[in-house]
Design goal:
disordered C terminus; single chain
């Protein structure tokens, strides 16, 4: 399906460059450029008054278009034409401008001079978003996934060292052993089960926790326009536990190759072939991690019960809200290393951050974790230990596992402790 991109730039040379580059990008087609904000709004208004399905999926707006300031124009387009994605082209793509553009309703920011790869990624992501919105609004058929779609759960750390990776591993194990029985048969790629994906691209440790050294990683799928079942199977490590692992690159700098667009393709491919997908997003909000959190059915944010971690939760929650990644009430904060007598309790964290807090709090248990961590066999964590019991109880709380099945011996439903 070809997506239409309307360039909007007052500089004729830049407008021609936009048209030329868009025309070279697969799946995208440039329309006639408009020279100013008045022409842009008039053009979109005329198309919407006729057949809204004729609206371009994306408008590519240069920051100096005039006469209306660019951010005001982005906001106006987003309000009047909610099924059109806006990408802002700027010579100064700073974090502050990115935040302001997202607040105004833009779906992406691209640098000027334009670079083909970056421009393609931003436009494709905005076009895919617009296509999905149109499908919901009945303005045109959005591409539909065929077959079953797996549940996506993301695990992010409010800051480094709060235990997000261990939790992601244990949730995946609980889901694999005691999750809902799939209705569909297994695919040839080994799907219809549980996949654990490491999107902590700078320094992911999922492979270390399972003692896996594998030549393939998430990066090997990043540049592919289509991820077939066979290609995915070659990148996934089939672990002895029964989990399918898609690990982070050994060279952290290669994580930059994983864009928002490639992350969407990756997650769509994995969800099409597995019943449950657990994603470790790390503690740094990368484009890949933000894309996963935005798409997740359940998004967990892990924190420890201390002031520094709670402040980190607050920063992350506010940033995700500003960037329209996820609203605070759509997150679930998980308290790790909890102590009953500490001053920072779950209710206080919920009140400060505005997020719900999981009922299943995880106690501190460094000695319980030590051997399993050091040996690279996190699957051997003691099932009678308080830490694993709490993590598997969380899996039951969010619907990844059956509550009775994950209870340890002597603690099953209907029996006295």
């Amino acid at each position: 399906m070809t997506m239409r991109v309307l360039p909007a730039a007052g500089d004729p040379d830049l407008a021609r460059a936009m048209i030329t580059l868009v025309g070279q990008l697969p799946g995208l087609e440039p329309t006639r450029a408009v020279p100013d904000s008045v022409a842009l709004l008039d053009t979109l208004g005329a198309l919407a008054a006729g057949n809204p399905a004729d609206l371009p999926e994306v408008v590519l707006v240069h920051e100096a278009i005039g006469p209306m300031p660019a951010l005001e124009l982005v906001r106006e387009v987003a309000m009047r034409f909610p099924a059109v994605g806006v990408v802002l082209a700027t010579a100064d793509p700073t974090a502050g401008l990115y935040s302001a553009a997202m607040d105004a309703g833009a779906r992406g920011l691209t640098a000027v001079p334009l670079e083909r790869e970056e421009l393609g990624a931003r436009l494709a992501a905005a076009a895919q978003w617009a296509s999905g919105v149109r499908g919901h609004l009945g303005l045109g058929a959005a591409p539909l996934e065929t077959g079953p779609t797996g549940r996506l759960v993301t695990v992010s750390g409010a800051k480094g060292g709060v235990g997000a990776t261990i939790l992601a591993c244990q949730l995946a194990l609980a889901a694999h052993l005691h999750g809902p029985t799939p209705d569909a048969p297994a695919t040839q790629s080994g799907g219809r089960g549980v996949a654990l994906v490491d999107l902590d691209l700078l320094g992911g440790d999922v492979g270390s926790y399972f003692d896996v050294q594998f030549r393939r990683s998430v990066v090997d799928l990043a540049g592919l326009p289509d991820i077939s079942a066979q290609v995915l199977a070659e990148a996934v490590f089939p672990h002895e536990t029964g989990l399918s692992l898609l690990i982070a690159p050994a060279e952290g700098e290669r994580g930059e190759e994983v864009t928002e667009d490639s992350t969407r393709r990756l997650l769509n491919a994995v969800r099409a072939r597995y019943d449950t997908v657990i994603v470790d997003c790390g503690s740094h909000t990368s484009p890949a991690g933000a894309t996963a959190v935005e798409a997740a059915d359940t998004a967990l944010l892990v924190a420890t019960p201390d002031v520094i971690a709670v402040r980190a939760v607050n920063r992350t929650v506010r940033m995700w809200d500003r960037l329209h990644i996820r609203k605070p009430r759509e997150l679930l904060t998980v308290v790790n290393r909890h102590g009953r007598t500490g001053p920072v309790q779950p209710q206080l964290i919920s009140r400060i951050t505005g997020t719900p807090v999981a009922t299943s709090v995880i106690p501190a248990g460094f000695r319980e974790l030590q051997d399993a961590q050091d040996s690279g066999r996190i699957q051997d964590l003691d099932p009678r230990g308080a830490v694993r019991r709490a993590m598997w109880a969380l899996a039951a709380e969010i619907g990844l596992a059956d509550a009775a099945a994950v209870a340890p011996p002597g603690r099953r439903k209907g029996k006295r402790p």
